[in-house]
């Protein structure tokens, strides 16, 4: 196949000879993206030169995007270095963060600085498993009960079917939920260093075919929304999804007073009245100040699925005055991270992972994704500490006036 050039591609689209989304079948990825961008510029009457000034070969993104016209560039900074005493990571790390929110890096950086002055933060992944929950239709609840019993008696057959689709993933368990003539089967997988959504979805499709072949159930949707992917859901807050990870630290009183310009008592009261009482009254699923800020920024910097900030921000912050200072913890119930697959293969995202020392597959498998989760949790802890202190010292608005405008 001869390679069309940009003008040929544009002409052929205009003539109705080529479909707008098929240009990569007739030219290299960069030529296709350029032709598509020129078509958009012409149709919309805009100039997209900055979008077109991307710094990587377009074919590196062939598994990450369709209808490519270029790349969005987001400012990227680092917070830290901060010392992480994790189960899968030990030592000082710069935390890569991509954001457009002024004052955010300064705030997380201040939190890291204070945490480091206290000797570093402890972090642990307490639970792990990526879930996919298809929904099946049955005739009635009696048939639902029969299906639940079949699943319990045949989990090994489901495991064999699911694991035949992957050389890394392992089916951990299958939990049924019955609602009238709907049966949801929540499959949970150990996806090692992959975030695992493609892996789990492909594996569950194979398992669902086993269910349909052996029972009277009909698969209605491979995702029945009880997984629960990219939507706020209590099941993720309680059961977890991806990694459940906690980070904590004790900051000495004098450090709180000298570096955070407030007191342990004030921070603890802000946390109680804001993150616990305020969130409860609001009916929030997360009981925290801005964990989403850190999750989003580190997700963008390291090639995670940005839409899964919804679950990643599902976190509880605690703060209490202790004899030796201020104890603060952040527990993220459903942080979905991977160090292989998805966007982790793209150039700047891969460099973000390299900066954390977690790029690629870990030894043992899964340990790099655990380490990434621990680093994100410490970043969230730093952000909570700094923002709660700023609220306690009444510096929030001035910080954004000076840094965010
Ligand atoms: C802005 C600060 C940090 C000033 O805080 P400060 O204590 O006045 O700053 P400082 O000049 O004394 O420096 C202290 C440390 O802050 C860091 N720092 C200080 N300045 C910078 C800078 N330019 N760049 C990088 N780092 C900076 C740096 O680490 C420095 O220590 P050092 O490392 O030098 O020993 C503080 O006032 C602060 O953190 N404010 C809170 C701002 C914040 O957290 N914003 C993000 C959340 S806003 C939002 O989106 C969520 C919200 C609020 O809507 C959610 C909700 O409803 O709660
Ligand atoms: N399909 C869906 O419904 C959804 C998909 N997504 C997208 O899914 C992507 C993430 O899916 P994910 O499955 O993580 O990524 P990929 O689809 O990129 O697959 C990652 C693959 O890497 C291989 N692999 C190599 N080394 C390892 C290792 N150490 N640990 C684990 N796997 C390894 C595995 O292949 P093998 O399995 O062959 O062994 C694994 O399946 C993101 O792009 C996300 O946006 C997000 C939400 C929903």
Automatic annotation (TrEMBL):
Protein name per the record: 3-hydroxy-3-methylglutaryl coenzyme A reductase
Question: Do you know which InterPro entries this protein is assigned to?
Answer: HMG_CoA_Rdtase (IPR002202), HMG_CoA_Rdtase_cat_sf (IPR023074), HMG_CoA_Rdtase_CS (IPR023076), HMG_CoA_Rdtase_eu_arc (IPR004554), HMG_CoA_Rdtase_NAD(P)-bd_sf (IPR009023), HMG_CoA_Rdtase_sub-bd_dom_sf (IPR009029)
Q: Which reaction does it catalyse?
A: (R)-mevalonate + 2 NADP(+) + CoA = (3S)-3-hydroxy-3-methylglutaryl-CoA + 2 NADPH + 2 H(+)
Give the domain of life. Answer: Archaea
Keyword terms: NADP, Oxidoreductase
**Pathway this chain belongs to:** Metabolic intermediate biosynthesis; (R)-mevalonate biosynthesis; (R)-mevalonate from acetyl-CoA: step 3/3
Broad enzyme group = oxidoreductase
Record family assignment:
Belongs to the HMG-CoA reductase family.
GO biological-process terms attached to the record? coenzyme A metabolic process; isoprenoid biosynthetic process; sterol biosynthetic process
Instruction: Write the Enzyme Commission number(s) for this entry.
Output: 1.1.1.34
Q: Does Protease appear among the keywords?
A: no
Under the GO molecular function aspect, what terms does this record hold?
hydroxymethylglutaryl-CoA reductase (NADPH) activity
């Amino acid at each position: 196949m001869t390679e069309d050039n940009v003008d040929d591609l544009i002409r052929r689209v205009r003539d109705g000879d080529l479909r707008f989304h098929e240009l990569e079948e007739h030219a290299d990825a960069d030529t296709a993206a350029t032709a598509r961008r020129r078509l958009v510029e012409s149709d919309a009457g805009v100039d997209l030169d900055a979008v077109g000034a991307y710094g990587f070969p377009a074919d590196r993104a062939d598994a990450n995007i369709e209808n490519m016209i270029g790349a969005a560039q987001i400012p990227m900074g680092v917070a830290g270095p901060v010392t992480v005493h994790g189960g899968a990571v030990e030592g000082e790390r710069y935390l890569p963060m991509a954001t457009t929110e002024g004052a955010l890096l300064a705030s997380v950086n201040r939190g890291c600085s204070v945490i480091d002055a206290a000797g570093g933060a402890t972090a642990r992944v307490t639970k792990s498993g990526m879930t996919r929950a298809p929904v099946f239709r049955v005739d009635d609840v009696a048939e639902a009960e029969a299906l639940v019993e079949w699943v319990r008696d045949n989990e090994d057959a489901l495991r064999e079917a699911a694991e035949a689709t992957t050389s890394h993933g392992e089916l951990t368990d299958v939990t049924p939920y019955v609602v009238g003539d709907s049966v949801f089967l929540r499959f949970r997988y150990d996806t090692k260093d992959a975030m695992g959504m493609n892996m789990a979805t492909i594996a569950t499709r194979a398992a669902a075919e086993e269910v349909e072949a052996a029972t009277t159930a009909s698969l209605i949707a491979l995702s029945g929304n009880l997984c629960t992917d990219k939507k706020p859901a209590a099941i993720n807050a309680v059961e977890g999804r991806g990694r459940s990870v906690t980070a904590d630290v004790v900051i000495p009183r004098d450090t709180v007073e000298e570096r955070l310009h407030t007191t342990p008592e004030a921070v603890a009261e802000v946390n109680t009245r804001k993150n616990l009482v305020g969130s409860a009254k609001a009916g929030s699923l997360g009981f925290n100040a801005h964990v989403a800020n850190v999750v989003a920024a580190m997700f963008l910097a390291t090639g995670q699925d940005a839409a899964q900030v919804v679950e990643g921000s599902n976190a509880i912050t605690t703060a209490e005055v202790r004899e030796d200072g201020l104890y603060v913890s952040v527990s993220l119930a459903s942080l979905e991270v991977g160090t292989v697959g998805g966007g982790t293969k793209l150039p700047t995202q891969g460099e973000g992972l390299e900066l954390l020392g977690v790029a690629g597959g870990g030894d043992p498998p899964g340990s790099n994704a655990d380490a990434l989760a621990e680093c994100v949790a410490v970043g969230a802890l730093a952000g909570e500490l700094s923002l709660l202190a700023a609220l306690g010292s009444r510096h929030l608005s001035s910080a954004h006036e000076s840094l965010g405008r």
